[in-house]
């Protein structure tokens, strides 16, 4: 069985985000970019499944400008066998991503499609669900545990829901999106970074995959959240009570 | 400061949040919430930073605090930590504080900033390791140079001893009173006075907390040439007075190079204005250097001007394993040659350090899980072009691997991974604290000989104690730590004076970046000649004839009293 993993290049989550002065988006020039952490978890899970000999190959897919190849190289250094880069230089919305993935699934015919539950840049949390719908595959979203049964061709997925753990059984092929606590991704070791250099990355364009990119969405503006006001230290209980009464009006 | 609020959905990611917030946090003393004040935060909140800190460990895990001064009323004095400089006799020449003095100080500072409150005095009397404790009855919080000047003028005339204090994060007992010295804490002098974006020159008051300066500069697109674990509490005045080293020294050099000017108040209250913002100024003796690293014994630094480099966007980190110390030295040479302009840190830790961290530090995870190695190295590069830098670092690492200088290694793929590497290196002091008693030595030794000491120590101590060695290898700075289940004079007698004698024999320094303080004042001769110390004493005598400034510290009793 082949596993396909979608990985996205996003602004590193530890970087302080700055909104562009014209409010059209956030500043990405000269900003550290990394693999979306949830995608890292998805890839790690695929690698573990392969290491458990339940899959034969892990294919990492990324979409976006040419620098997405760097993110793919990271994925290959973690252990993916090969990469696919769909080059596109404008914003891709979840439905377009899902359509491209569907086209790639038709080419690659994986038995399992793994994605992060969401990307930390747009926080959409839609692609996994959309691609499952487009393919008409069962979906296990926000997975915190995944067990594969090769014989029965079934995946058992635990999901952390509000009232406990929900366990789903999915017939393969299926779509699984990964949550935070599923695993702890590995580091890219030097020997693997070296090996990754010779692993193949295949390039496509949306046209080549017969996917027309259009969107019903328009971003009106992007603004910073309101600044938090600095706290103050009160010097006595009386002062605190006074402030709670007269300023905060809570008692 | 890592931006923590921008992404609520991702707040929970991985392990403990402290991993990110407490990056480079040597003193494990500060609760994240207390850090990262904006520079606009109120003076009051800053002075409470120390008082508000929460010890992560129960106090009993620390060395039991011992008073150290003899000859005072109620002056106790159990000595639990044997490597203290020994019990100190209160110098009878110093006057004792009276009500009139308090009234005088209240006249200068107002009642609010003359502190006699027990609880606040306990915090100000105790160092962060809970190793040294004075018994001062008075804490003064001046708000201006003029106030500092008036305080000192008065203290000098009354022969009242004083201890200048910043964030009180020192490791050698330099920032707390030994006996009943008046504490002059500069935390209310916390204003950034000017910043020149063209030249990158910052002028600020001495009480600015290092992390606030770092945050301020970050917003301006610059970095502090100084970064160290205690940044959330330590103040720039204290950093300058102790010539703090830290993690960026390899790249940006010491404060002797980065401090362009300062203002200091002498013991008699004279304000010496050397607050220049010039890179070049050859007009007579460059006296500012006397105040950099003299640990408040010659004057109180009240303002500083610092040259800050622009912030570069591309930072990469690798965590490597080496089989022996020879390989590490070769790796350092190679790194300097091949990474030259982008190399920003070269830190090493030995297998024992790694073991300790993995066993005692929360959230620590070995990036190289296959097996334990003898040595580990953390290399950081800082440059302006992400893809160029990464390529360069990768090429260097692969080359080093082919030449068997490194036996394994990982390269951080994102900032989070880089932070986790730093967490291992910077978490060693915290892990040591958790492991039991610890004898700490901060030594400068030529890189070639540096690790011999650790090995000799191991042979000497056998199974009695665990010898842990790590440090800023790029700067020839070894942090030698000897960890034992509890403090034991027998263990100590095996370590001292051997460590000092060994260092002296190899022409090293017994204090690379921590200073002498109280702990090592009497050990100065291991690193300085009698003639040099005598000259230091003459300078001390000239600037502070009554010896009221930070007494019992820096210089040995034999020359200072």
From TrEMBL, chain A:
Keyword Repeat: no
Protein task: The electron transfer flavoprotein serves as a specific electron acceptor for several dehydrogenases, including five acyl-CoA dehydrogenases, glutaryl-CoA and sarcosine dehydrogenase. It transfers the electrons to the main mitochondrial respiratory chain via ETF-ubiquinone oxidoreductase (ETF dehydrogenase).
Compartments, record wording: Mitochondrion matrix
The keyword Chloroplast appears for this protein: no
Protein name: Electron transfer flavoprotein subunit beta
Entry superkingdom: Eukaryota
Family annotation (InterPro entries): ET-Flavoprotein_bsu_CS, ETF_a/b_N, ETF_b, ETF_beta_N, Rossmann-like_a/b/a_fold
Gene3D superfamilies, A to Z: HUPs
Keywords: Electron transport, Mitochondrion, Transport
Family matches, as SMART domains: ETF (SM00893)
Domain Electron transfer flavoprotein alpha/beta-subunit N-terminal: from-to ranges: 23-213
PROSITE patterns the record matches: ETF_BETA
Any one GO biological process: fatty acid beta-oxidation using acyl-CoA dehydrogenase
Assembly, per entry: Heterodimer of an alpha and a beta subunit.
GO molecular function annotation: electron transfer activity
UniProt record similarity statement: Belongs to the ETF beta-subunit/FixA family.
Automatic annotation (TrEMBL), chain B:
Cofactors required: FAD
EC number: 1.1.99.39
GO cellular component, one term: mitochondrion
Keyword annotations: FAD, Flavoprotein, Oxidoreductase
Span of domain FAD-binding PCMH-type: 132-311
Reaction catalysed by this enzyme: (R)-2-hydroxyglutarate + A = 2-oxoglutarate + AH2
One function term, GO molecular function aspect: FAD binding
PANTHER family according to UniProt: D-2-HYDROXYGLUTARATE DEHYDROGENASE, MITOCHONDRIAL (PTHR43716:SF1)
Protein family membership: Belongs to the FAD-binding oxidoreductase/transferase type 4 family.
Designated name of the protein: D-2-hydroxyglutarate dehydrogenase
Organism: Acacia crassicarpa (northern wattle)
């Amino acid at each position: 069985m082949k596993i396909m993993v979608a990985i996205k290049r996003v602004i590193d989550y530890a970087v302080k985000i700055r909104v562009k002065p014209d409010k059209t988006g956030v500043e990405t020039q000269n900003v550290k970019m990394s693999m979306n952490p949830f995608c890292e978890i998805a890839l790690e899970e695929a690698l573990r499944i392969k290491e458990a000999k339940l899959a034969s190959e892990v294919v990492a897919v990324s979409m976006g400008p040419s620098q997405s190849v760097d993110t793919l190289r990271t994925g290959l250094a973690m252990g993916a066998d090969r990469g696919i880069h769909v080059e596109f230089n404008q914003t891709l919305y979840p439905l377009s991503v899902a359509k491209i993935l569907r086209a790639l699934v038709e080419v690659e015919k994986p038995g399992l499609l793994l994605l992060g539950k969401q990307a930390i840049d747009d926080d959409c949390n839609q692609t996994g669900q959309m691609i499952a719908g487009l393919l008409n595959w069962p979906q296990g979203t926000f997975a915190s545990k995944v067990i594969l049964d090769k014989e029965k061709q079934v995946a058992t997925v635990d999901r952390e829901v509000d009232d406990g753990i929900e366990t789903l059984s999915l017939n393969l092929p299926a779509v699984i999106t990964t949550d935070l606590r599923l695993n702890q991704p590995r580091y890219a070791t030097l020997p693997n970074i070296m090996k990754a250099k010779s692993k193949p990355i295949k390039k496509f364009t949306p046209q080549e995959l017969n996917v027309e990119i259009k969107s019903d969405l328009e971003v009106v503006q992007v603004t910073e959240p309101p600044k938090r006001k600095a706290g103050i230290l009160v010097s006595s209980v009386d002062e605190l009570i006074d402030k709670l009464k007269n300023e905060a009006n809570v008692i | 400061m890592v931006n923590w609020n921008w992404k609520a959905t991702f707040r929970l990611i991985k392990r403990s949040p402290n991993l990110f917030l407490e990056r480079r946090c040597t003193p494990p003393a500060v609760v994240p919430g207390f850090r990262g004040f904006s520079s606009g935060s109120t003076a009051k909140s800053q002075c409470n930073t120390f008082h508000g800190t929460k010890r992560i460990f129960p106090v009993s895990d620390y060395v039991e605090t011992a008073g150290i001064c003899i000859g005072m009323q109620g002056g106790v004095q159990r000595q639990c930590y044997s490597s203290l400089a020994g019990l100190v006799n209160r110098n009878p020449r110093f006057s004792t504080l009276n009500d009139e003095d308090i009234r005088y100080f209240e006249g200068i500072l107002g009642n609010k900033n003359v502190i006699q409150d027990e609880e606040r005095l306990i915090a100000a009397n105790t160092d962060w390791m809970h190793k040294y404790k004075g018994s001062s009855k008075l804490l003064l919080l001046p708000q201006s140079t003029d106030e500092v000047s008036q305080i000192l003028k008065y203290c000098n005339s009354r022969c009242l001893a004083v201890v200048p204090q910043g964030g009180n994060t020192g490791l050698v007992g330099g920032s707390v009173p030994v006996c009943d010295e008046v504490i002059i804490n500069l935390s209310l002098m916390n204003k950034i006075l000017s910043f020149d974006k063209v030249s990158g020159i910052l002028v600020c008051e001495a009480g600015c907390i290092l992390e606030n300066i770092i945050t301020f500069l970050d917003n301006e697109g610059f970095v502090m040439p100084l970064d160290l674990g205690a940044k959330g509490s330590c103040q720039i005045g204290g950093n300058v007075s102790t010539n703090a080293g830290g993690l960026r020294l390899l790249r940006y050099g010491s404060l002797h190079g980065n401090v362009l000017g300062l203002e200091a108040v002498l013991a008699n209250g004279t304000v010496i204005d050397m607050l220049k913002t010039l890179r070049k100024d050859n007009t007579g003796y460059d006296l500012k250097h006397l105040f950099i690293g003299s640990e408040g014994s010659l004057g109180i630094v009240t303002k500083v001007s610092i040259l800050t480099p622009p912030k570069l966007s591309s930072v990469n980190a690798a965590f490597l394993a080496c089989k022996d110390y020879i390989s590490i030295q070769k790796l350092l040479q190679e790194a300097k040659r091949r990474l030259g302009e982008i190399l920003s840190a070269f830190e090493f830790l030995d297998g024992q350090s790694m073991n300790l961290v993995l066993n005692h530090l929360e959230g620590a995870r070995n990036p190289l899980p296959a097996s334990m190695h003898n040595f580990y190295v953390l290399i950081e590069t800082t440059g302006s072009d992400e893809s160029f830098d990464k390529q360069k670092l990768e090429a260097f690492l692969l080359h080093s691997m082919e030449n068997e200088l490194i036996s394994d290694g990982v390269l951080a793929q994102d900032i989070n991974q880089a932070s986790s590497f730093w967490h291992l290196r910077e978490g060693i002091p915290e892990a040591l604290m958790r492991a039991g008693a610890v004898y700490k030595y901060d030594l400068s030794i030529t890189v070639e000989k540096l690790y011999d000491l650790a090995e000799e120590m191991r042979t000497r101590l056998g199974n009695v104690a665990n010898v842990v060695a790590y440090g800023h290898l790029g700067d020839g700075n070894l942090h030698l730590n000897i960890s034992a289940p509890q403090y034991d004079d027998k263990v100590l007698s095996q370590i001292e004076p051997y460590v000092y004698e060994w260092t002296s024999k190899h022409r090293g320094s017994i204090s690379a970046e921590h200073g002498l303080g109280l702990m090592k004042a009497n050990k100065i001769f291991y690193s300085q000649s009698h003639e040099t110390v005598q000259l230091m004493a003459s300078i001390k005598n000239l600037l502070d004839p009554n010896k009221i400034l930070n007494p019992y510290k820096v210089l040995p009793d034999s020359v200072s009293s």
